Amino acid sequence: MLVSDGDIGGILGLHFKEEIKLESPVISIDGVSLNEFDYIDIGALIPSSGAVPVVVKSLIFPTSAG
Length: 66
Prior knowledge:
Elements: E1 2-4, H1 9-19, E2 28-30, E3 38-42, E4 54-58
Parallel strand pairs: 1-2
Antiparallel strand pairs: 3-4
């Protein structure tokens, strides 16, 4: 799985599939900005648009216990 904040998802996916001949499936998503402690949930493909729903979640840790 590849995630990028730039507009390069399609090119990267095609490169891994056609040039490198990677046999494993590749998910390449762009337009997502991530920070430290972020994680993403990726939903199922929406066939009519070719898009997938993406939710970015951030982990927050308390600075003190009390």
